[in-house]
Write a structure and sequence with these properties.
It contains eleven helices and two strands. It has about 240 residues and is mainly α. Strands 1-2 form a two-stranded antiparallel ribbon. The model has no long low-confidence stretch (mean pLDDT about 90).
């Protein structure tokens, strides 16, 4: 069994390497790309990232995911999304190729459709929503309120992936497991009932990151990589 100290040292080493290899996330300004990133975060909730990414590529390849210009086009997109999400996708994981359906594909199709309606049929844009608030915490809350099926973790991942803000934590199961191993939290899963509960754990991780002079972007990625590799190795 890998020791706590070994896991801790490995995570910090990977964090410092990431700081050099990935200095900052590029800022995404295209509305279409912002939409793709938002939908990817909806798809990846409670799902392997590889499966969500494969489904996102399928939606993009067929030009199914697009900004509706009117209600008639919205109805077309709605039908296409429902049809596509029920189909299996091929993806690679640990060097092997698999094929399976997206988890909760019916519910996620509804989430994507409702998100499109909330934003574009109300004459809004994602870029506009990002500019509504000066406070970054309120921006995250706004993303959650307009986007169906998104909680604090997925909203944080979205804002990070588009280069908008990198100091929100993405508290997935790997990060929570790492924090529990180090005694930073006693939480046993990554299901948070509200923003206050999420921010409480996020603050602890941010304090830990500051202690070792790394930002949350690099620390999260290091934890995710290390813990995922460790779990694969030990089965």
């Amino acid at each position: 069994m890998t020791s706590v100290f070994k896991i801790h040292d490995t995570v910090l080493q990977v964090s410092y390497e990431a700081r050099t290899l990935l200095p900052e996330m590029p800022i995404i300004k295209s509305e279409n790309k912002l939409l793709s990133e938002l939908v990817l975060c909806i798809l990846s909730s409670q799902e392997k990232y590889e499966v969500a990414l494969a489904m996102m590529k399928s939606l993009s390849k067929e030009n199914i995911l697009r900004i509706p210009k009117n209600k008639a086009e919205f109805r077309e997109i709605k039908a296409e999304i429902k049809s596509t999400l029920k189909n299996p996708v091929c993806f690679k994981s640990n060097g092997k190729t698999y094929s399976r359906r997206l988890r909760f594909f019916v519910k996620k199709a509804e989430y994507i459709i409702d998100t499109l309606e909330n934003i574009y049929l109300n004459d809004l844009t994602i870029k506009g929503i990002l500019k509504q608030e000066d406070c970054i915490q309120n921006t995250r809350k706004n993303i959650i309120s307009y986007s169906c099926g998104l909680g604090p973790k997925q909203a944080s991942m979205f804002l990070r992936n588009i280069g908008y803000y990198s100091e929100f934590a993405v508290l997935d199961k790997h990060v929570i497991d790492y924090m529990r191993i180090l005694g930073l939290t006693c939480v046993t899963d990554n299901s948070f009932s509200n923003m206050a509960a999420y921010q409480k754990i996020e603050t602890k991780l941010k304090s830990y990151a500051e202690t070792y002079n790394v930002n949350l972007l690099h620390l999260d990625l290091a934890i995710w990589t290390t813990m995922r590799t460790l779990k694969t190795y030990h089965g």
